[in-house]
């Protein structure tokens, strides 16, 4: 079959036109997953028999004339996402019971006709920008197996980058979609809070975590975002609907773009790697060449980090209470859960109450600019094992230093997109982040699509590519 029908939208069109079958596409995905299990190691769980049976059923429906946005297309979800009949371990060791029901996002995937071929690896409770752990081993970057694909949605990113599936879902609580997108040469979208339902959680990790797509093209990311968008009746956050796919083909107009280098204060030094600065500067020049006004300007983040910590650690504590055997948890996880218990009262209430003030303070930048452009990360991807072997204090400092740019938008709940921004001198992928105000996904998607038309990043594949 070669390289036919690699993209999500491309596969959906080919199935609708009768140029391929779901059995063929799903079978190829399963073969590639198996072939790269010892190298990329993207998947925690593979639904081989169930996916093949669902592909046969999709082919019967297609033959009968039924058409849905993703009918018969293979996709993957992260290890924190409930799939009926499968465990949700979220990167943890131990034996977890199978879930009785699909999460709302998986229900929507199935309603669109997609076939979930498996669940991808994530670090323990999504806490770190790497995807390694005793429960599943090391997930490796298809661009350089010696390096991490990032985290916590590293398995989803590695699966898409290596061509195992055309697109996958991740979750983003501090950059966990955008960071691995940057480090694997993908498009990663963190939507507006509540755009994609987190049910059976009314909100995830005290509102900082959302679900978002990882794909090689803006069109594919927008398609996955569109079919997954919508709310369960018990969701706490229900944003005004947007039309992601329509935005792909829309001219964003001449935008005012703030190029921002300053990260929010954390008390930890955060030097910006010169090759990252150069790559993001080049992308800013591309935006200027495309007709946009680009000038350096900084959002006023204030002390937003003081709000992030109580929400994040409380979320970790809440999740550890569901783990069958807490003795198997990483010591850093147990320490975070203890801190979460200390901060889950008055400090958490203050953190939640401060959000509106923080949105007003940071959002002032959008009085003058339409989009904020930053690096996605401060460094290229680290080598496997660099952070995983550290103690809690050193892990936190190294994580903040490498990834200082993404997490404030989780506190605010606003949308952001990481797009490819080239490569380091060592051939490692780098990313740039397009950030918008509440409900601003459409503008960000339109701008990212125009960048993709110019830079053609999706035409470049990693050396470790399944089926190449």
TrEMBL record:
Annotated ranges, domain Amidase: 24-444
Entries under Pfam families matching the protein: Amidase (PF01425)
SUPFAM superfamilies assigned to the protein according to its UniProt record, in alphabetical order: Amidase signature (AS) enzymes (SSF75304)
TM spans (from-to): none
Gene3D superfamilies tied to this protein: Amidase signature (AS) domain
Domain of life per record: Bacteria
Family assignment from sequence similarity: Belongs to the amidase family.
Record-given protein name: Amidase
């Amino acid at each position: 079959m070669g390289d036919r029908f690699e993209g999500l939208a491309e596969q959906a069109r080919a199935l609708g036109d009768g140029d391929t079958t779901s059995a063929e596409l799903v079978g190829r995905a399963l073969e590639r997953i198996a072939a790269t299990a010892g190298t990329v190691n993207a998947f925690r769980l593979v639904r081989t028999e169930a996916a093949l049976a669902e592909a046969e059923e999709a082919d019967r429906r297609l033959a009968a004339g039924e058409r849905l946005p993703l009918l018969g297309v293979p996709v993957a979800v992260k290890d924190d996402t409930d799939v009926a009949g499968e465990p949700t371990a979220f990167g943890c060791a131990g034996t977890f019971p199978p879930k009785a029901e699909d999460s709302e996002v998986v229900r929507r995937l199935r309603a669109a006709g997609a076939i979930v071929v498996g669940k991808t690896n994530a670090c323990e409770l999504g806490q770190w920008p790497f995807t390694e752990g005793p429960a599943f081993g090391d997930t490796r970057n298809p661009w350089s197996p010696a390096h991490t694909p990032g985290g916590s949605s590293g398995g989803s990113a590695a699966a898409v980058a290596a061509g195992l599936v055309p697109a996958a879902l991740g979750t983003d609580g501090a950059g966990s979609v955008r960071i691995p997108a940057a480090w694997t040469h993908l498009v990663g979208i963190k939507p507006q809070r509540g755009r994609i339902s987190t049910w059976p959680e009314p909100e995830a990790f005290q509102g900082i975590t959302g679900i978002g797509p990882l794909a090689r093209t803006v069109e594919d990311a927008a398609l996955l975002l569109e079919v997954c968008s919508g709310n369960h009746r018990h969701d706490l956050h229900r944003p005004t609907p947007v039309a992601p796919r329509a935005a792909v083909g829309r001219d964003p107009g001449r935008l005012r773009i703030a190029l921002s280098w300053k990260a929010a204060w954390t008390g930890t030094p955060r030097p910006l790697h010169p090759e990252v600065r150069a790559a993001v500067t080049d992308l800013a020049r591309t935006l200027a060449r495309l007709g946009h006004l680009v000038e350096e300007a900084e959002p006023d983040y204030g002390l937003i980090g003081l709000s992030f910590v109580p929400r994040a650690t409380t979320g970790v504590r809440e999740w550890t209470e569901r783990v069958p055997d807490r003795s198997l948890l990483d010591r850093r996880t147990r320490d975070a859960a203890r801190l979460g218990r200390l901060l889950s009262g008055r400090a958490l209430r203050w953190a939640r109450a401060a959000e509106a003030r923080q949105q007003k303070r940071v959002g002032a930048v959008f009085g003058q600019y339409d989009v904020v452009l930053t690096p996605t990360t401060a460094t290229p991807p680290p080598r496997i094992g660099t952070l995983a072997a550290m103690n809690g204090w050193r892990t936190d400092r190294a994580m903040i230093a490498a990834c200082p740019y993404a997490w404030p938008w989780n506190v605010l709940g606003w949308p952001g997109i990481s797009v490819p921004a080239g490569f380091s001198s060592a051939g490692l992928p780098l990313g740039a982040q397009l950030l918008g105000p509440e409900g601003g996904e459409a503008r960000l998607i339109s701008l990212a699509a125009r960048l993709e038309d110019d830079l053609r990043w999706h035409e470049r594949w990693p050396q470790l590519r399944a089926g190449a």
